[in-house]
Amino acid sequence: MTGKRPVRVLVVDDHPVFREGFAALLRSIDEVEVVGTASTGVEALEQATRREPDVVVMDVQMPDMDGIEATRRLLQEHPETGVVVLTMSEEDGTIFDALRAGARGYLLKGAEPDEVVRAITTVAGGGVVFGAVLASRIADFLAPRPRSGTATAFPTLTAREHEVLDLVAAGLSNGQIAARLFLSQKTVRNHVYAVLTKLQAADRAEAIIRGRDAGLGR
């Protein structure tokens, strides 16, 4: 931003107390102008078209359309808009789904007001912002890893089990894997169990580590 006008912000969250409290906080800050609020993903798309915000502060868990899908659709229609995800979720799957959807900021609820304002103004200026903890996890995730070839690394797995392990290594939950592969959650649970059994992994965390060491989950 050039500083000629405040950043126009749309606040999206399905919890009215948090939404209105957060909007009130932003209204007290000179650099920011709250142009509207929304409680669902569908309403967020409508408000974004009507209000033309510079930045949308987006929750993830919402009725009728979650914040990830709302971000994806919003940026298809308004690619110039910046999205900062503000959520309780620290799951790797949620973080990277938000990135894939086009979000340029990701903060956890409970972040200091100054941090949130910096994120909003930075994203409005075309930058990318993540909280310190999340940034280190993203850097670790994107760090080069040895690629031994998944077929030779896990010869006992079927093609579908390789696919499931790849998504497990990416940090996705069973529900997210089911949606990605168009499978039932029961089927995904069965595949995950088969993967753990064949790899003789003690738990999901060990499977993630072994998958990433083999170059999966990127």
UniProtKB/TrEMBL annotation:
One Pfam family named in its UniProt record: Response_reg
One GO BP annotation of this record: phosphorelay signal transduction system
Record carries keyword DNA-binding: yes
Alphabetized InterPro entries for the sequence: CheY-like_superfamily, NreC/VraR/RcsB-like_REC, Sig_transdc_resp-reg_C-effctor, Sig_transdc_resp-reg_receiver, Tscrpt_reg_LuxR_C, WalR-like
Residues annotated as domain HTH luxR-type: 150-215
Modified residues (4-aspartylphosphate): D59
Single annotated GO MF: DNA binding
Record keywords: DNA-binding, Phosphoprotein, Transcription, Transcription regulation
Domain Response regulatory per the UniProt entry, residue ranges: 8-124
Protein name, as recorded: DNA-binding response regulator
